[in-house]
Structures are given as structure tokens and as C-alpha cells.
Amino acid sequence: MSRAYSDMTLPIEKVFRDPVHNYIHVEHQVILDLIDSKEFQRLRRIKQLGTTSFTFHGAEHSRFSHSLGVYEITRRICNIFKRNFPIEDNPENGWDDSERLVALCAALLHDIGHGPYSHTFENIFDTNHEELTTAIMTSPESEVYQILARVEADFPEKVASVIAKTYPNQQVVQMISSQIDADRMDYLLRDAYFTGTEYGTFDLTRILRVIRPDKHGIAFQMSGMHAVEDYIVSRYQMYMQVYFHPVSRGMEVILDHLLKYGKKLYAKQPDYFERTSILLVPFLNGRFTLSDYLKLDDGVLNSYFTLWSEYDDPILSDLAKRFLNRKPFKSVTFDASTKEVLPVLKEIIAKVGFNAEVYTAVNSSYDLPYDFYRPEQEKFRTQIELIQKDGTLIELAQASDLVAALAGQGHGDQRFYFPKEMLGQADTPAITLFEDDLTYFNSYIKNGAIQLTKN
Amino acid sequence: MSRAYSDMTLPIEKVFRDPVHNYIHVEHQVILDLIDSKEFQRLRRIKQLGTTSFTFHGAEHSRFSHSLGVYEITRRICNIFKRNFPIEDNPENGWDDSERLVALCAALLHDIGHGPYSHTFENIFDTNHEELTTAIMTSPESEVYQILARVEADFPEKVASVIAKTYPNQQVVQMISSQIDADRMDYLLRDAYFTGTEYGTFDLTRILRVIRPDKHGIAFQMSGMHAVEDYIVSRYQMYMQVYFHPVSRGMEVILDHLLKYGKKLYAKQPDYFERTSILLVPFLNGRFTLSDYLKLDDGVLNSYFTLWSEYDDPILSDLAKRFLNRKPFKSVTFDASTKEVLPVLKEIIAKVGFNAEVYTAVNSSYDLPYDFYRPEQEKFRTQIELIQKDGTLIELAQASDLVAALAGQGHGDQRFYFPKEMLGQADTPAITLFEDDLTYFNSYIKNGAIQLTKN
Amino acid sequence: MSRAYSDMTLPIEKVFRDPVHNYIHVEHQVILDLIDSKEFQRLRRIKQLGTTSFTFHGAEHSRFSHSLGVYEITRRICNIFKRNFPIEDNPENGWDDSERLVALCAALLHDIGHGPYSHTFENIFDTNHEELTTAIMTSPESEVYQILARVEADFPEKVASVIAKTYPNQQVVQMISSQIDADRMDYLLRDAYFTGTEYGTFDLTRILRVIRPDKHGIAFQMSGMHAVEDYIVSRYQMYMQVYFHPVSRGMEVILDHLLKYGKKLYAKQPDYFERTSILLVPFLNGRFTLSDYLKLDDGVLNSYFTLWSEYDDPILSDLAKRFLNRKPFKSVTFDASTKEVLPVLKEIIAKVGFNAEVYTAVNSSYDLPYDFYRPEQEKFRTQIELIQKDGTLIELAQASDLVAALAGQGHGDQRFYFPKEMLGQADTPAITLFEDDLTYFNSYIKNGAIQLTKN
Amino acid sequence: MSRAYSDMTLPIEKVFRDPVHNYIHVEHQVILDLIDSKEFQRLRRIKQLGTTSFTFHGAEHSRFSHSLGVYEITRRICNIFKRNFPIEDNPENGWDDSERLVALCAALLHDIGHGPYSHTFENIFDTNHEELTTAIMTSPESEVYQILARVEADFPEKVASVIAKTYPNQQVVQMISSQIDADRMDYLLRDAYFTGTEYGTFDLTRILRVIRPDKHGIAFQMSGMHAVEDYIVSRYQMYMQVYFHPVSRGMEVILDHLLKYGKKLYAKQPDYFERTSILLVPFLNGRFTLSDYLKLDDGVLNSYFTLWSEYDDPILSDLAKRFLNRKPFKSVTFDASTKEVLPVLKEIIAKVGFNAEVYTAVNSSYDLPYDFYRPEQEKFRTQIELIQKDGTLIELAQASDLVAALAGQGHGDQRFYFPKEMLGQADTPAITLFEDDLTYFNSYIKNGAIQLTKN
């Protein structure tokens, strides 16, 4: 019976129209059932890029569409591997197509544990989207688990182990999670499409022509070096220009302080939150279950912020309004040599009347979980390998000057965030009172960065 | 002072990256302030296409991005009119560029009164997005009003009158609202982009090359006839294939019944709703203010549905789950000749155990507010006029066989909606019990339509 | 041996990068050899759209790239048919994949008989590209023949019979040649891409999802009706706006008259042409062989025109210059009711000093060999059929108002061509002398058409 | 009068549909006249990328369309400069719009001196496309000169001096010719479009947003650093993957040897060439005039090759056939350390029976005139400068790791070319005789490169 289920294919292939991949093709009943599960449908209500849509208004796409995209790329890789490199003909390096279903399920579900504004939320409420992904796959109460378990009793664990990278077949693992995997390839193309930028565009078709299985995982034919190189550069450009955009981070720090402040206030005024913010309470009080988690989405948080914006705690209300109405904090960059100015700036900000704890922030893009290519620093990263005509492998950065230039060092910046009012542009009498303070504050800023000496 | 404000232009033009128009260019301080207003920012939280994203998963874009797009097309038309057809050179038919600001504001704000799932919501709760658009523009408490009033005391009314089509300059009115206006041009292109279909694609650049002001409004040079024709065909294709998609409508009828049922239940159990659905209560009890309305968005409704899906009223809970987890009703078409079968089908549905009032629906696409080109039937529609070399005008359908074929008659269909379970595919014991009923039900269906005689 | 050759597939699939289809995939040695043949390589030197590139400067693509495109679409259709509708499972309507090679070869070679500016050239020199296609396939001296004959002795005849539509398997025939075939689908998309227009764009991916084999040929699933409808509309738009463009036709009539005049002059002054126009002589004297034909291409004709433009026959030289330097004849439309004015106009043109035979022309777009959808008029056209859920067929125009509006009647126009000088814009003294004549001439023209009564 | 001509603008702006820039807009009568000149129309008959279309079959576009594109980008830059940085407001760094016409003419005509297969042709026949560009602009017999001279007597010289970079206004010079100019921006985008690759795609709109005039020429706002960086990377990718493609170079060396051999043969057998190759004779005998040069185009050369391919000199005929029928030489890379093997390989090739002088070649991509970013090596290159908020300038490579990685060093390779027959794949008896020689030859090749030690 479970065998039968894993082999059940749809009489007519089902497709989902997709702006990035044209069509997403579903052939297995298992995949269709997973898409129809309530845990997966919930991803429709969680934006892929969180606060980025405050900067790039087109980027309102959900984790649902990204997950379908990762599935589709994985499916295409499996097709190519099956056609060109079957294990039957390549016993050492070939692809065993009986791995297809586990790969497809892992691809589809790799983000199933994400919640609203994940990276901010989990810092504050101690949730962890990777653990939650595993939990959803392996908890008997989830529909996802029930579907996976119909395939085979240990299938949920298998799929979870792909995400955890402990699955024995490294081809499957690296398809879903490596420096150049279906996940990254989809999000770069998708985020580029929806933001309307072109930096993330690389030649997926060509990469799929040169990808091939290898006994240690995934590799690329030497002839495709420039295509892989181009992907790495696109990735870099997307991080620099989209993911690390200072304005989106200026909204993210507001969200972060708003949730933190709400959590603190809950300790003092639980009644208010228990009345208005029902679905958030388990997180405010630290006693949440998987079921509680699965009720959250972007809309739940936003609808509580709408209520909070009318509450009579002035800070909670002000931060909620700034978030809902898109009033990002402004920022300047700093580095080790100018870090010492931060306390001075905070002091001025406090003097003007802001709670400096709540109204300033330091945001370092290196800390953001969209990771970057740094093989030396993080040993677990699998290298990208190129296969020469005679079968020997070369590591990508050895073959590409461009990749070598980007490899092994962090890119990004550190920014100090503060209220826009400090720039003295806000045309309010309250600010005018502090004109000297503002002038003093701005004397520390030059070309968008903190400087040591006042102008 | 107000004069000054209307003339205030940004020292450096501000742009918003847009996937459809590449960049949205903002030159006036007024426009920037309107975009920053809380009423306008709220449009970020309202999807442009409502339940369509359940069918086309890419279509998650908001009314915010559409509104920017309409503004941008209007701005481009103003530029073209100013450069090529200024009133100074064309006293009879030319464009008076002092009308630019009122046109831009009306374009930007034309949808400001929309709420979550507008068309469904307003049927049930007696809100009206057009009246609300006017209300937002002209109510002293709104930020939008305050910005518009800074331009001139009667400027809010002026902008509102453009939307109401009573503004004297019909060039401005028709730019925003006519058979081929900035609104329609943006949504066709935008919806095509985000759904990933190509039907809505037409040649905007070429249309902008042939558009020109006329003393009675807007017209098009004869040489652009095929470009206008192509726009009309694209519009038709989008309605037939995207806006009237049976599955999206199968979600819409669920939403409709869910809200109606909730409203009815509120009468009996107000406590439950007052506890869980704070922001919706003013609508459930029919005593809402503009301020109440402005707190609603898609996320507010969805977060209440999440709570409702756990309530112990089985119908409320079931409908909420069907909506959240995307379990659309199925449908068949019918017409005047087969309408008589509907009571029979409802009876079978009731026999199987469904409340037929709640679990069936008739949806006619002609009723959907995405209107269609039918000049004979609705007199107020302004025709599309083509200008010949010698200055005489021709109505579009006179010049185009294709448009003539589409003009003057409704397109779409009428569908009867019912639970998927009636098709007998759901693999549950409960349904198996009613096998004969299901067979009887399906005997009335052939090629997706109701038939009179049983098979 | 021949068997072996037909089965020989490349160890690694070869691809050609293509802007329209992304990649052209070659799997058979036979196909690669055909592409490498000198007759096929010659297509690189023949423009797909002839004089159209004088109007749309991007349209400089060759018959070589179009031929690859037709091959690629055919290959994709075969793949779909093989996967979804194999004859093994569908004995009545299914696809027999042993027909693949004949289909691919016919697709690749369907235009192999085309020469430079085919449609003009063959009118004058009595060549016929369809007969020449057959001749190239079946003449022992051609490389194409030698390759095809290696497959099987009668394979050249088989492939030729597909082009002639006499091949027994009508699925193969209709794939290459029907109202909606790989040929038309490629040229619409390709010509739209290279001209930079969007009219020709339709949803190829979707059409390939709904195409299916039928016992009588090719049909489309009912669910794809709108996609097929959209293709028909795109086709119509391309004809109206690109293929029938008056300026391209204004160059075509010059070319036509230039070649005709050259042929006439040859009779009187054979020496001149035998000295300068070596490769054209067999056509000027009507004694050409297949080998002579295969030496022609666009560049050959153009290089003779360069020489002719310096010859001392003033008409030959003037026409050659007009063609090389793009000085199209101008035109006005006329119809049955205004045809009587033509002799009057010619008389004025003669009076002004032009040889009216050479310097005027009538061009009717209906006569142009880019054919159009007119089932009633030309019985041999196979209809486009849609398959309903229960298997019954419907003819497309029965299901689509748009197609019905276009079907069964010619679209296009008739134009009278004459020298630009007649419009009196040329700023030369010679013309100024005839001012009254020009005024008289122009009094017969209104809104781009001939009128009966003078203005 | 001349004044009047320079100011004459078209009553209605004329447009050319362009697949890359959508529309080319022509506003000046001067520009329209230049486009209509016979010297400019001739560019329609010269491919932009020469032998590249043998590898990327879509790349059949002409220098005509590229020239229009360069004009259009220049026009857009002028518009931006005029609107945002007029000299009236920025006396030090601003743009003087009276320079527009000279800039537009220089942009349009910058390639007017190119002939067929320029880079190969001019090596052999001592033509120089830059000198010829100047000659065409300043020779009284050319139509281009006559048009330019109508503007002002010294206008032809002015335009020519822009091309020569001696024009005093460096803003104009750098718009047309610098590391990031309208020429390079157009050809990258255009070549990417027509080849169907995506490497050349960069964000033109964004670059046009950050470009600005500077007293020393052209600079870019700091905020656009990544857009400029992306352009540099795209440029690098196009060179590596398209312009330096080994197969195109394998055709180019054949062309080179064919023309050289023809020239040598002419010395011995002038009669043959004087009879068949009329338009080429002035170049074969080294006594050509500008008028002779202007009669050449790709088609002229190809039509002579067609004749040559039947001549009884076996080498001339064989090379002509290889070129017409696309039989590229094959190649392997080598470097300083393996250069010593070349004489050995040539010897084997000669032993097999090929004239090693004619049938082998060394091609170094560094020598190709598509230049590359190497500021240290070639001092005359103007650097790309970024403008910081406070007005100070930074050189691009100082701000970009990626550009720094590419700067200052050559990229490309050196290849040794030889007949495909040497690889032993050609299935001919003649080759089979030399099996040992071929084996020996191939023992020097590994992973596509020459190796010192035999395998």
C-alpha cells in the first residue's frame, strides 16, 4: 500500500502557472497532497522577503511560490540526471532515480518551518525554523507527516534528514542545500523577478545543462564555468543591492524593537495582550506548541500591530505605527575605527527625547541569515567543483578570477540606525527646539558614514 | 503657501523600482506625501486580485503597487501631451498642463477606498469602495485629505470629482477612467506579469505613442488602431482566462458564504466575535466608521478565519478551513435552458448532508465588477475614438473586425458551485455511504456543464 | 547500415543557442549532418523576411535560424506525443514514434528550396521554391539527398512527400504544415522577436500542453481553446502590422521592377550582364540548373545591384540605387470603387517624366504568399479541431467569437505604388517645374486612400 | 540657412522600432538625412559580429541597427543631462545642450567606416576603419559630408574630431568613446539579445539614472556603483563567452587565410580575379579609392567566395568552401610553456598533406580589437569615476572588489588552429592512411590544451 502511494502518478500531469519557471509540473500524488496540506498552504500567508517589500514594492511573493520553484528546479535536475547520468550506466558517479521522491519532497518542504518575519521573530521568541521544519515533518499531528508516512514508515525521517544534511546520498543533499542548489537558484531568480531588478538573473538553462552527479555530490562540467561564475556574481549582487538594502533593514530594526518591546510590556500588562493578541500570547509567555506556531502568519502579526498602534503605551503605539505606515529608521555605516562614536550619538538621541534603547539599533549585514560564500570561515560548506574533460575536479575559485575575488571574505556593512527626525528634515516644532543637538549629531556624518572628527 | 506646496518638486526625482514599468518616477512633494500617508501605505496589505492568487500563485501583488503603476502611466501621458499637444499650440484639443497635479493625485488615489476582498466584502457589509474613496479624500481626519487640502482648499473635492467623473476636464477624467485608461492599462500588464500569463500583454509604448488629447477627452491616432485593438483583445483574454477563472471563483463563493455565515452567527453569539474578532465587530453589527474601515486588511480577515477555524460551530469552522487551506468548491456551467436542474442538484446535496444554502452557490461572471466592453448596454461608457489624418473621428469597432466581434455582448459564464465531495473523488467512508446519490448527481453533468437529461 | 545511421544518436546531445527557443537540441547524427550540409548552410545567406528588414531593422534573421526553430518545435511535439499519447496506449489516435525522424527531417528542410527574395524572384525567373525543395531532397548530387539516402533508399522521397502533404501519416504532415503548425509557430515568434514587435507573441508552452495527436492529424484539447485563439489573433496582427507593411512592399515593388527590367535589358545587352552578373545569367537566359540555383543568395543579388547602380542605363541604375539605398515607392490604398482612378494617376506620373510601367505598381497583399485563414475559400485547408472532454471534436471558429470574426474573409489591402517625388516633398528643381501636376495628383488622395472626386 | 538646418526638427518625431531600445526616436532633420544617406544604408549589408553568427546563429544583426542604438543611448543621455545637469545651473560640471547635435551625429556615424569582416579585412588590405570613418565624414563626394556640411562648414571636421577624441568637450567624447560609453552599452545589450545569451545584460535604465556630466567628462553617482560594476562584469562575460568563442575564431582564421591566399594568387593570376571579382580588384592590387571601399559589403565577399569555391586552384577552392559551408578549423590552447610544441604539430600536419602555412593558424584573443579594461597597461584609457555625496571622485576599481579582480590584466587565450581532419574523426579513407600521425598529433593534446609530454 505505501509502495503503491509512492508510485502513484497523476493520470494527467498537473501544472501550476509560474512567472519564473513558466510551469511547475506535478506528477506524483504525494507531491499534490503535500501542496494541498494545510501546513503548506499556510506558506501563502508568509512573504518570502519580509521587510524587503517595503523597499521593492513588487516583492510581495510568498514562501509558497518559492517552495514550488525549488521543487520544480529539483524535478528538472532529476530528469536530467536520469536521462544523461543514470547509475545503471555510471555506477560510480551516476544518479539513482529511486531517490527522486525523497529529493522532491525535501525540496518542496525545505522552508515549511518558516513563520512570519522569520529571522526577526525567532531571535526574540526562541523559535527556530530549521527545527520547526523537522518538527512539522515528523510530528504525527501534521498533515505533512501523515502524507509522508503513507509512503513508508520512515519516510518522514528520511526527508527530514535531507534538510539536516545527514541523508547518506549527498547528491540529494546538495541538490537542496549547497553553495549552488535548487533553493538558492530559485530565490535569486524569483526575487529578481518580483523586485524588478536584474541582478539576480543568471542562466538557469545553461547551468542545468552542465550540472552532473558525482560520487561526492554535485559537480559542473568545466565548459559551464562561466555560467556558474555568473551565478555567483548574481548572488553577490542580490545580497549587496536587494537583501542588504539599508531601508529594508531600517524597517527590520523597527519590527525587532516593536516585538521585543511588546514582549517586555506583556510581562507588565498581560491582560492587554491576552485580550487583543490571542494568537501571539503563547510566544509572549514562552509556552508555545507546534500547533500555536502553525497559526501564525504575516497577517496575524500585522493585525495585532494595528491594534497596538492605538494602545496608550506611547512607545508600543509609536513603533507599531512606524512599522505599519513604513517610517523606517535612517542609518549610517560605521566600522571598527568609528565605532567609538556610537555612544556619543546615542546620548544626543536620548537628549532630544528618544528612548535610545528602543530608538536606535546596530544592524550588521554579516549577521543576516542569507549566508554568503566564505569557504575558509565556515568549514562545512561544500565547495563548487568543476569537472575537466579527463574527469579530474577543480574548485571553482581556482578557475575563476571573479569568484576568487569574492571568495573567503565577508561582504556587507554595519549600520547604526536612528529616527529620521535626527536628520532634522522633519518639519515639526518639537524638533526645531533641538536644532543645536541635531546639528551636532549631523556633524558626525559624512558621505553616509560616521566620521571621527566633527565636520 | 498652498500654491508653493503644489509647485514643490523634489530636488532629486525619487524613484520606486517597479517590475512592470521599470521605475515609478516621483517629482512632486505632494505625491511623495500621499504615498507616505497611512491610508496609502495600508494598500500594501490588500491584494490586488483577491482570491485569484489561489489559482495563479504569483498574483500576490497589492493594490499599493497597482496604484503606483496607474500614477506612472498617467504621468507619462501628461508628459506626452505636454510635449506634443500643449494647449498653447492646440487651443481646441490640446492639453493644459496645469491639470497635471489633479490628474496625478486622482490616478494615485483611485483605489484608496478599497478594503480586503472588496467585492465580496462590500456585498455583505454594505461598504462601497467608491464612496469610501471619496470619503477618504474629503474627510478632515485622513492624512490624504490633509495633504490634498494643503494644495488648495477645494483640491480634495476636485480630486474626488475626477473619480466621480464629474470633473469638467474630460481629458483628466478619461485618463483615469474610460474604456482604455491608465487604470486598466496598468492592471492588465501588472496582473499578466504577476500571474505569469501573457494574455494581458499589449504594447503600452505604442499606445502611448498614439494617444492624444481631444476636446471631448482622449482619442487615438488612426495609425495606432491595431495597437488599441490588441489591447482590447488582451483585456478580453485576461477576463476569460484569469479574472473569471472557475477555481478562483470557487474560493470566492466560500469566502462569501463564510462572511455571511459569520454575520448571521454574530447575531446569535456576539460574545464570541467580540472576543476574537475585534476589528470586524463594527461591520458585523453594522455600525462602522471610516476609521474602522481603515483598520481592515487581508491579514485581519485571515487571522480571524484562523481563530474561527477552531470554533465549535461546525459550519463556521469548516468554511474557515476550506478558505485558509484552499479547498475550493467545484463547479459546472449552466444556462437558461438547464437552470431548472439546479433545485434537483441542491436537493441531492442536502440529502448527502450538506446545508445546501451554505454549501452551494451560483456565480455569474457577468456580475463581477471587472467590467467589460458593452457600449450598447451601458450608455455612460465613452467610446474609443480614432482620429484620421484629416481630423475626423471613427469609433473603434467601426475600424476593427476583432473589436466588433467582441463589442456589445457579454462574455463569461454562469456556474453552479458545490462541494468537491459531490464528485465522489474524496476517499472518505462518509461519502461512500451516499454512492447512489453521487452517481445520480453526476448524471446531470457532461463536458463540464449541466445537462437536462440524465446520462 | 542505413538502419544503424537512422538510429545513431550523438553521445552528447548537441545544442545551438537560440534567442527564441533558448536551445535547439540535436540528438540524431542525421540531423547534425543535414545542418552541416552545404545546401542547409546556404540558408544563412538568405534573409527570412526579405524586404521587411527595410522597415523593421532588427529583422535581419535568416532562413537558417527559422529552419532550426521549426525543427525544435517539431522535436518538442514528438516528445510530448511520445510521452503522453503513444500509439501503444492509444491505438486509434496515438503517435507512432518511429515517425519521428521523418518528421524532424521534413521540419528542418521544409524551406531548403528557398532562394534570395523568394517570392519576388520566382515570379520573374520561373523558379518555384516548393519544387526546388523536392528537387534538393531527391537529387543525387545534393548533400542533403546523400544524407537522407543513407537512412533508407526511399527516405528522401518520404521526406519530400511530407512537404507535398502526400505522406500517409497526417499527424506528421500537419505538424509541419497546417493552420497551426511548427512552421507558423516558429516564424510568428521569431519574426516578433527580431522585429521587436509583440504582436506575434503567443503562449507556445501552453499550446504544446494542449496539442495532441488524432487519427486524422493534430487536434487541441478544449481547455486550450483560448491559447489557440490567441495564436490566431497574433497571426492576424503580424500579417496586418508586419508582413503587409506598406513600406516593405514599397521596397518589394522596386525589387520586382528592377529584376524584371534587368531581365528585359539582358535580351538587348547580354554582354554587360555576362560580364558583371555571372551567377545570375542562367536565370536571365532561362537555362538554369539546380546547381545554379544553389549558388544564389541575398548577397549575390545585392552585389550585382551595386554594379548595376553604376551602369549607364538610367533606369537600371536608378532602380538599383533606390533598392540599395532604401528609397521605397510611396503608396495609397484603393478598392473596386476607386480603381478607375489608376490610369489617371499613371498618366500624370508619365507626364512628369517617369516611365509609368517601371515607376508604378499595384500590390495586393492578398496575393502575397503569406497565406491567411480562409477555410471557405480554399478547401484544402485542414480545420483546427478542439477535443471536448467526451472525445467529440469542435471546429475552432464554432467555439471562438474572435476566430469566427477573422475566419473566411481576406484581410489586407490593395495599394498603388509610385515615386515619392509625386508627393511633392522632394526639394528638387526638376519637380518644382511640375507643381501643377503634383497638385492635381495629390487631389486624388485623402486619408491615405485614392478618392474619386478631387478634393 | 545652415543654422536653420541644424535646428530643423521633424513636425512629428519619427521612430524606428528596435528590439533592444523599443523605439529609436529621431527628432532632427539632420539625423534623418544621415540615416537615409547611402553610406549609412550600406551598413545594413555588414554584419555587426562577422563570423560570430557561425556560432550564435541569431547574431545576424547589422552595423546599421547597432549604429541606431548608439545614437539612441546618446540621445537619452543628452536628455538626462539637459533636464538634470544643465550648464545654466552647473557652470562648472554641467552639460551644454548646444553640443547635442555634434554628439548625436558622432554617435550615429561612429562605425560608418566599417567594411565587411572589418578586422580581418583591414589586416590584409591595409584599410583602416577609423581613418575611413574620418574620410567618409570629410570627403566632399560623400552624402554624409554633404549633410554635415549643411549644418556648418566645419561641422564635418567637428564630428570627425569627436571620433578622434580631439574634440574639446570631453563630455561629448566620453559619451561616444570611453570605458563605459553609448557604443559599448549598445553592443553588449544588442549582441546579448541577438545571440540569445544573457551575459551581456546589465541595467541600462539604472546606469542612465546615475550617469552625470563632469568637468573632465562623464562620471557616475556613487549610489550606482553596483550597476556600473555589473556592466563591467557583463562586458567581461561577453568577451569570454561570445566574442572570443573558439569556433567563431576558427572561422575567422579560415577567412583570413582565404583572403590572404586570394591576394597572393591574384599576383599570379590577375585575369581570373578581374573577371570574377570585380569589386575586390582594387584591394587585391592595392589601388583602392574611398568609392571602391563603399561598394564592399559582406554579400560582395561571399558572392566571390561562391565563385572561388569552383575555381581550379585546390587551396582557394577548399578554403572558400570551408568558409561558405562552415567547416571551422579546430583548436587547442597553448601558453608560453607549451609554445615550443607548435612546430612539431605543424610538421605532422604537413606530413599528413596539408599546406601548414595555410591550414594552421595561431589566434590570440588579446590581439582582437574588442578591447578590455586594463588601465595600467594602456594609459590613454579614461578611468571610470564615481562621485561621492560630497563631490569627491573615486576610481571604480577602488570601490569594487569585482572590478579590481578584473582590472589591469588581459583575459582570453591563445589558440593553435588546424583542420578538423587532424582529430581523426573525419571518416574518410584519405585520413585513415595517416592513422599513426593522427595518434601522434593527439598525444600532444589534453583537456583542450597543448601539453609538453605526450600522453
UniProtKB/TrEMBL annotation, chains A, B, C, D:
<feature type="domain" description="HD">
    <location>
        <begin position="63"/>
        <end position="188"/>
    </location>
</feature>
<protein>
    <recommendedName>
        <fullName>HD domain-containing protein</fullName>
    </recommendedName>
</protein>
<dbReference type="InterPro" id="IPR006674">
    <property type="entry name" value="HD_domain"/>
</dbReference>
<dbReference type="InterPro" id="IPR003607">
    <property type="entry name" value="HD/PDEase_dom"/>
</dbReference>
<dbReference type="InterPro" id="IPR050135">
    <property type="entry name" value="dGTPase-like"/>
</dbReference>
<dbReference type="InterPro" id="IPR045509">
    <property type="entry name" value="HD_assoc_2"/>
</dbReference>
<dbReference type="Pfam" id="PF01966">
    <property type="entry name" value="HD"/>
</dbReference>
<dbReference type="Pfam" id="PF19276">
    <property type="entry name" value="HD_assoc_2"/>
</dbReference>
<dbReference type="GO" id="GO:0008832">
    <property type="term" value="F:dGTPase activity"/>
</dbReference>
<dbReference type="GO" id="GO:0006203">
    <property type="term" value="P:dGTP catabolic process"/>
</dbReference>
